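Subject: DMT family transporter

B.,
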Amino acid sequence: MTHRRAVVLMIVVTLLWSTAGVVTRHLEAARSFEITFWRSAFNALALVLALGWMRGPALLGQLRRAPRLVWVSGLCWAVMFTAFMVALTMTKVANVLVTMALGPLLTALFSRLFLHHALPARTWIAIVVASAGIAWMFGHEFGAGGGLLGVLVALGVPLAAAVNWCVLQHVGHGEDESGDMPLAVLIGALISAGLALPLAWPLQASPHDLGLLAGLGVFQLAVPCLLVVRLSRVLAGPELALLGQLEVVLGVLWAWLGAGEDPSSAALLGGAMVLAALAGNEWLAWRAETRPRAPGRAAVSPASSSSNPQSTSRSEA
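Prediction pasted inline below.
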């Protein structure tokens, strides 16, 4: 898979991810932990069917023998699945999304600290600009509507995501051959559903709610999360996190158009800064890819560059 195709698919992933906020605003009876339970349960069911069809009876044994890194990633997915939906029921969609947008900065820092990956200057600049836009949005939204507890719950998402992107990058670029990372998504869904069920009882979701939550479980979680595991073999962790910030802009837009949660002028300005940072980073990456090489200089293939963590981060971030 080329870098450009991976970027396009990651944008599709963010489009699917961004639908959660607006869909939850149209639920009739399901609330808080029940929303989390049903979404994670439908996610787990879809993953069991998909992975079971591809792997057959061996799936259960693979789950039992899953190595440590798979379980670490699974726990990260569980935190992300659970904290995100609970936070959405406690504060505005914009508050949750702008808090999640701390992810690129945390991912870049974790990649540098724990994986010793160098990042190009353009990616650091893009992260700073995007973070400034998020800070602008956050300051306005938080000052206007409160929701401190919901914001604190939402903080669990970028923290878990930063750890997860680092694990996915470590495994996806061949630095550890033991990871079967699609299993991690299934483990995360099962843990999230199991933890939420006792807190969700008694269940009150209507058939209308179950239909919406089933759609979220399959198309907002299972499909894009499996896809992002594949993309982690091509894109560096900080770039995955940076591209994921489109979810912030799209999520606020859908909540505005589909649920009447009007974004403020500060949210619009902050979102424009995020988009500018993303577009600038990808444009500079595209120029670097297409720039003619000096005569006699050998081209480096993606496969060979991935064996070196630092060259991978510089060429792909």
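The longest helix spans residues 265-290.

T.
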